[in-house]
Amino acid sequence: MKERLQKIISAAGIDSRRHAEAMITEGRVSVNGEIVRELGSKADPQKDVIRIDGKIISIENPGCYIALYKPAGYVTTLSDPQKRPTVVDLVRDVPERVYPVGRLDYDSAGLLLLTNDGAFAQKISHPGFRVPKTYRAKIAGRISLEKLKEISKGILLPYGVFKPENLKQEKVNDKSAWISLTLHEGRNRIIRRGFEAAGFTVTRLVRTSIGNITLSGLSEGSWRPLSDREVRELQAPPQGKKGKNILDNHPKINNSRAVRDNRHHKYSGFKQQS
Fold first, then answer.
1. Where in 71-164 does DSSP place strands (E)?
2. Which domains does the chain have, with CATH numbers?
3. Which of 27, 143, 162, 224 gives a 20 to 30 Å CA spacing to 47?
4. Which H or E run includes 84?
C-alpha cells in the first residue's frame, strides 16, 4: 500500500515528519532511483526501493522504546546548531537509531521517551490521546493554597489555556515551594509560562512520569528499555464517557498503523546498500 514518503521516513525512525519533509524538498530522497522533491509523493515500502542520501531504508527490524532520565542542560533534538549537548548523546549505546517522543525544555529535567517507531511517537504525542504527564515544579517564594486553587481553574495564555490537574503543594518554606501537577498536553514551556502569568517563577522543573512510565530505577542521564507490557499500556486508547474510545473517529490516530504489535514494527532505520 502506498503512503506519503514523509510518513514512511518517520515510521522508519529516521527523523520526524517535519524533518523528513525537508529531506524530500532538499532532494535527498529517491524512489526506485528517481529523486523525489514533491511533498505529496507516495511510495509502497513493501515494493519500492526508498533511499535517503543513497542508503536504503530497512524493513522488518524490531521497534525500540527507551525511557531516559534527561538532565537539565540537554536539548531534546537529534542535533543542535549551537553545539549544545543533545539527549541523543545520552543514548549512544542504544543499538537502534532513536529520536525523542515530544520534547522537554533545555533547562528542565525528567522522563523522556525515545523510539524508532514513528506511529508510536505520533500517537503518544498527539493531544487527542491525552497521555497524562506529571511534573514537580519548584516555585520561588511562597504560594498559598488559595492561589493554587485559582491556578487549577485555568490561566489564559496567548496560545492556549494552562489548566493543570492534581495541583498539590508538596514542600514549602519561606524561600520556595515544590508543586506537583498533571498535564495531558505539553505546549512549549507552558508550565513556566503559566506560573509566570500567575505571578510566580519556576526555578526547577522535573517530569516524573508519562502515562504508566516513571523515573523509578533511573538516575540522571541513565536510560532503560521499556517492556512490551509498558509499550502496550502506553498505547491503550483513552476512554470517554460510557467506555467509548474517544479516538474511534479520529482520522489521524485511527489508521492501519496507529495500533499494531509492538514487537514487529515495519520500518526501522537504514541498511547499507549491497
1. 99-101, 109-115, 133-140, 155-157, 160-162
2. 3-59 (3.10.290.10), 65-102+109-128+216-243 (3.30.70.580), 133-210 (3.30.2350.10)
3. 27
4. none
Torsions phi, psi of 108, nearest 5? -110, 160
Contact assessment for residue 2 and residue 42, using Cβ atoms and an 8 Å cutoff: yes
Transcribe 206-270 into DSSP letters: EEEEETTEE-TT--TT-EEEPPHHHHHHHTSPPB-GGG-BTTTT-TTTSSTTTS--TT--SEEEE
Q: How far apart are CA 179 and CA 136, in angstroms?
A: 6
pTM, full prediction: 0.69
Grid coordinates in use for 115? Answer: 523510539
Active-site residue, selected from the candidate residues 105, 174, 228, 248: 105
105 catalytically annotated:
yes
The alpha carbon dihedral of 13, 14, 18, 20 has a sign of negative
What is the structure's pLDDT at 259? 30
pLDDT at 215 over 70: yes
Q: Are 68 and 110 in contact (CB under 8 A)?
A: no
Mean pLDDT lowest among 79-93, 136-150, 178-192, 245-259: 245-259
